[in-house]
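Can anyone check this?
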Amino acid sequence: MSQENVDLIERVVEAFDRHDLTTLQQLCDEDFEFVSVLAVVDEADATYRGPNAWKDYFRVIEEMWSEWHTRDIEIFDTGGDQLACLFRLVGTGKLSGVPVERALGITYRIRDGRLWRMRSYPNPADALEAVGLSE
């Protein structure tokens, strides 16, 4: 099952980078939950759940960023239902026009062949640690 999970996350990352809501929704479990550190509004983090999770997430992100994409993507397989991904987010602030580049980490949990849980971390090492790996 491990390679299937890696393949799933590769498809998720590609769809995420294209801002492809339809594909992301198809790849996720109906009980999908995403805890994001990037979509901070007034709270410490933002949690997006269910069928509208991606739509709600991208709405917030598009208010903050005029352009963004990922690069230098590395996927780490634990051999189970958890994976981690380290990458660089590159974007431009919508109001400030300031270019930003930041290293981040994300953890994924798979259930029945679909993405079930996703959490982003401002410190990439924390994502690896959360799935039992280290840099």
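Reply from J.R.: I decoded it. The radius of gyration is 14 Å.
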